[in-house]
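WARN  no MSA supplied for this record, continuing single-sequence
INFO  ligand: guanosine-5'-diphosphate
INFO  echoing inputs
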Amino acid sequence: MHIHWFPGHMTKSLREMEDSLPLADIVLYVLDARAPQSCINPIFGEKVGHKPIIYILNKADLVLEAEVDKWVGKLSAQNTAAVKLNATASGGGKIIFPLIKKLAAERLERFKNKGLSCGLRGMVIGVPNTGKSTIINNLCGAAKTITGNKPGVTRGKQWVRVNEYFELLDTPGTLYPKLSDQATARKLAYIGSIKDEVTDTLGLAYAFIEDVHSLYPDVIKNRYGVEPQISAAETLQLIAKARGHMQRGGVPDVERAAIGLLDDFRKGRLGKIILD
Ligand code: GDP
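INFO  complex generated
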């Protein structure tokens, strides 16, 4: 399977991000904890420039703590911080705000000395499906619920004041998934960052079976009670049978099994898995 994709539909969101990014003082760069390296698109390094970055390793609940901690260590550097998060749990601010305060300490001090109320501005960016909207909702919390495109709700972007020194853009900046090499592209497809419509689901499921089996030999057996075969296609047939996904005439519905398998991984039902 070869993932070949021109992300034409993303140019609008990219342009929007390029408009907003210069206005932000600090960048919250969201990564999927199951594939942190794959979620970093180096092309955007230039656009972010010298702004402080907080890497948020989100969906940390789907990865063993020791594994995600390794990545937190690797990604912490001067002018950058890294932190693990489960954005679906409340209280994200308690985890993120202290890091913002630390990274922007000088700036906050300058404002304080001038007696100014500080409007430090942050923006959430990342590749699709890493949890950017969930994080914005989590951080904005009581300040404002993102209400979407309901009639009467102001459209377009707004800075939401989330605490006494910090404002957050209510719209995330969406980055292109990086397709520089196929191994990375596959991982991004597994985590749902590259839409299934542009990949071939069966091919993706076969590749996933092979990749996950080489990393975690027991995962397929544990979830489906199926012994992995030499051919991923045969393994998927067995999974389809085990799940009762059958077509008329007793033919296993491998398409349905493929969708189910990828969904099981994305929702964490295959257990804690890290791909990078
Ligand atoms: P976005 O495309 O980056 O804005 O991603 P969303 O915020 O829409 O989230 C994508 C999916 O991931 C949704 O189904 C969320 O409920 C789920 N999600 C977001 N954060 C987490 C997390 O920390 N843990 C888990 N398990 N799921 C999450």
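The beta strands are 26-32, 53-58, 80-85, 120-126, 159-161, 166-169, 173-174, 246-247, 251-252.
INFO  checksum written, moving to next record
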